[in-house]
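INTERNAL AUDIT FORM
Audit reference: QA-55
Scope: verify that the stored structure record matches its stored sequence.
Auditor: D.O.
Record contents follow.
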Amino acid sequence: MKSRPAIGSFLYFGTCLFLGMYFSFTAVQGDGGLFQRIRAEAEADNLRSDLSAFRAQVSELENKTHRLSDEYLDLDLLDQQARARLGMVRADEVIIP
C-alpha cells in the first residue's frame, strides 16, 4: 500500500518557499532594499559635488566682498563691477556694438 505524503508537509514547504521568495524580493526591491541604497548613495555623491561647487562659489564671493570692503579696496575690481553693473565707460573709450 502506497502512502501519500501528508498535505501538511506540502503546505509547510510551500509556505517556507513563499516567505523565502518574499523576503528575498523585499531585500532587493523594497523601501530599505539594495536598489534604494544604491540610489541614495548616488544622490549623496551628487549632493557632495554640488556642495563643493557651492563652497567654491561662496569662497569666490567672500574674496570679492573682501576686496570691495572699506579695509581693502581693490580699485580695478571696483572699476570692473561699476562697468558691468551700471554700464559705465570712460570718456576716452569707444563702444563697439
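Auditor finding: record pair retrieved intact. The helical segments are 7-29, 34-67, 75-86.
Action required: none
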